[in-house]
Write a structure and sequence with these properties.
This protein is an alpha+beta fold. It has three domains: 114 residues, OB fold (Dihydrolipoamide Acetyltransferase, E2P), CATH 2.40.50.140; 265 residues, Bira Bifunctional Protein, Domain 2 (BirA Bifunctional Protein, domain 2, 2-Layer Sandwich); 138 residues, Gyrase A, domain 2 (2-Layer Sandwich), CATH 3.30.1360.30. The protein is built from 16 helices and 23 strands.
């Protein structure tokens, strides 16, 4: 910061210090501070102001008994919250009983000699405070005010430090930061494109890139063996708390690599980020789990491993059951699976009938046709365990004994069972239920950060509506070496495994990647498996297919979702809290009012017409 000098007369807002750095060591020093009025307190002519900038708070004192500018003392009475001011004054140590240990500048205050009101402010629609009770709609409408809150500023500072840490680490590993186009060709990559009409090419469109996937592979063809960028991506899809129509990813690709190399490099990068951003050591290597194991044990491909509750398969127990609901499912090739919860620490009244009815509704909302529950209790007339459940009368003695033995049941246990002919439905319901119970029963240690590699995903998934296979990741993901020949022959497509991997943190997918297809015959086999004709391949991917003919190195990569990663680093549960100007779940900006209509002249220049909405009958 600049020293106080005559050069500051015309621009009195030039600071010598920020509002977060002065300490008792500067006692008696003349300083200039600028910022926003956070709070004003008038003690009978002695006025105290908390001055705020993004670095912190400093207390100002306007004392009529001290030397100084009389006009400034009068102007101090006009000050209100969020006025922008600049002051010149002397640092002085606070009396011992007035020291505020909660802030970095709590030992000192500024005895103001000169005040400049730089900008007045209306009364804000909500309090600029970390603990504001304003709803999200109001905060997003006045996002420029919300950005002044310390919580949001800290989140964006974490984001900044994350970027810098990543850039430093990757640059040291010989990665080059290379920008790729945002306006590109519309290619099918799994989500709807945002389209941009071309004025100079009437009737033709660009697409805002969903990711730089094709372009970073072309960089590998071009000989840039290690690439990265902080890429802006756009997807027109349904939104939720951890998804936005425009988002950022740390995009990484490298040549002459394999999965093990990528795992090691990315683990070290994550360790560097956590050390620099949170001053936390993260142990490596990270645990690994196959996709199938994740689905079997946790019901999701991004399991939260901070708590141990796992899904158990009860199909064998009920193989000969007379309970018709289970019998029908098993005869149709389905499964009965469930969760076992110990209620010993929850109290005798845990999970009332009302609670269990609510869990049933929750499971149904996530795809289950129903939820069977069993409370295990001590028998009244015998030492054996009793089953308290609406389905208890349908269970044979053999089934009860088998459940006790296989699941090591004890009095106080609660079983939650889902039966469905669809394995995916069972997983979806129990996976959601597991996460719900982890929060409800406070099974999760929020201080933990559990990383996990999920590997060996399916390569393809059959779409019954389209009557064709679709890529589980994207059309450029390589099958595992063991399944490459099968893909080329078009055999056993439903069971092919992808050389793909996700990095999961606390139940969130924070990164995903794969080894890419680099040989022409494998890429053409992939397109055939996806049902693309040669004409469609040439129309959508012709430039890329041609590039593969000029010598393509083996390559692979990964992309980190910046917003989710920073969300977890910042300890919040919504990515909107770590983005400067986010949109709502309806992809609207409440602050600017976009999307919004444009003038007919603009549309005419773009050769675009707008269809009127059909009126509801």
């Amino acid at each position: 910061m600049q020293p106080v000098s005559e050069n500051n007369i015309e621009t009195p807002w030039i600071r010598t210090h920020t509002c977060g750095e002065l300490t008792a060591a500067e006692d008696g020093k003349e300083v200039v501070l600028s910022g926003w009025v956070a709070k004003r307190r008038d003690h009978g002519g002695l006025i105290f102001i908390d001055l705020r900038d993004r670095y912190g708070l400093t207390q100002l004192v306007f004392d009529p008994n001290l030397a100084g500018d009389d006009r400034s003392k009068r102007d101090a009475e006009k000050l209100r919250s969020e006025y922008v001011i600049s002051v010149r004054g002397l640092v002085r140590n606070r009396p011992a009983e007035m020291v505020n240990p909660k802030i970095a500048t709590g030992e000192i205050e500024i005895a103001v000699q000169e005040l400049h009101i730089l900008s007045e402010a209306k009364t804000t629609p909500f309090t600029i405070d970390d603990h504001t009770d304003a709803g999200e709609v109001l905060r997003l409408k006045y996002r420029y005010l919300d950005l002044r809150r310390g919580t949001i500023q800290r989140n964006l500072i974490i984001r900044h430090h994350t970027y810098q840490s990543v850039r430093k680490y990757l640059s040291a590993q010989n990665f080059l930061e290379i920008e790729t186009p945002i306006l590109f060709k519309s290619t099918p990559e799994g989500a709807r494109d945002y389209l941009v009409p071309s004025r100079v090419n009437p009737g033709e469109f660009y697409a805002l890139v969903q990711s730089p996937q094709i372009m970073k592979q072309l960089l590998m063809v071009g000989g840039f063996d290690r690439y990265f960028q902080v890429a802006r991506c756009f997807r027109d899809e349904d939104l939720r708390a951890d998804r936005q129509p425009e988002f950022s990813q740390i995009d990484i690709e490298m040549s002459f690599t394999n999965r093990e190399t990528i795992y090691q490099l990315m683990e070290e990068m994550v360790r560097a980020v956590f050390q620099e951003v949170k001053e936390m050591d993260v142990s490596a290597p990270f645990p690994r789990m196959t996709y199938q194991q994740a689905m079997d044990d946790y019901g999701v491909d991004k399991p939260d491993t901070r708590f141990a509750l796992k899904i158990k398969n009860a199909s064998a127990i009920f193989a000969s059951t007379g309970f018709q609901a289970f019998r029908n499912v098993l005869d149709a090739g389905g499964q009965v699976r469930g969760l076992q919860i110990s209620l010993a620490q929850q109290g005798e009244n845990a999970f009332s009938r009302k609670d269990l009815d609510e869990l049933t509704k929750f499971a149904q909302q996530h795809g289950a046709k129903g939820l069977a529950w069993i409370k295990v209790e001590n028998g009244k007339d015998s030492p054996s365990l009793a089953f308290n459940s609406p389905i208890a009368k349908f269970l044979s003695e053999q089934e009860r004994e088998r459940m006790v033995q296989d699941w090591h049941l004890q009095a106080g246990d609660l079983l939650l069972l889902v039966a469905d002919a669809s394995y995916d439905n069972v997983c979806a319901a129990l996976g959601a239920l597991r996460n719900h119970l982890g929060k409800k029963l406070e099974l999760i240690d929020q201080s933990l950060f559990h990383f996990l590699w999920v590997t060996d995903f399916p390569l393809l998934q059959y779409d019954p509506e389209g009557k064709r296979y679709v890529a589980c990741h994207h059309p450029f993901t390589s099958p595992t070496p063991a399944d490459e020949a099968k893909l080329i022959r078009g055999e056993d497509l439903a069971n092919l495994k992808a050389a793909a991997y996700d990095l999961v943190l606390n139940g969130f997918e924070v990164a995903g990647g794969s080894i890419r297809i680099f040989r022409q015959e494998v890429q053409h086999a992939m397109f055939r498996a996806l049902g693309f004709s040669e004409e469609e391949v040439q129309e959508k991917f012709g430039f890329f297919v041609e590039a593969l003919q000029y010598g393509t190195p083996p390559h692979g990569g990964i992309a980190f979702g910046v917003d989710r990663l920073v969300m977890l680093l910042a300890g919040t549960d919504a990515i909107r809290e770590v983005m400067a100007f986010p949109k709502t779940q309806k992809a609207t900006c409440l602050m600017s009012g976009c999307p919004s209509p444009v003038a007919a002249e603009q549309l005419a220049e773009l050769h675009v017409g707008v269809m009127k909405k059909k009126e509801k009958a």
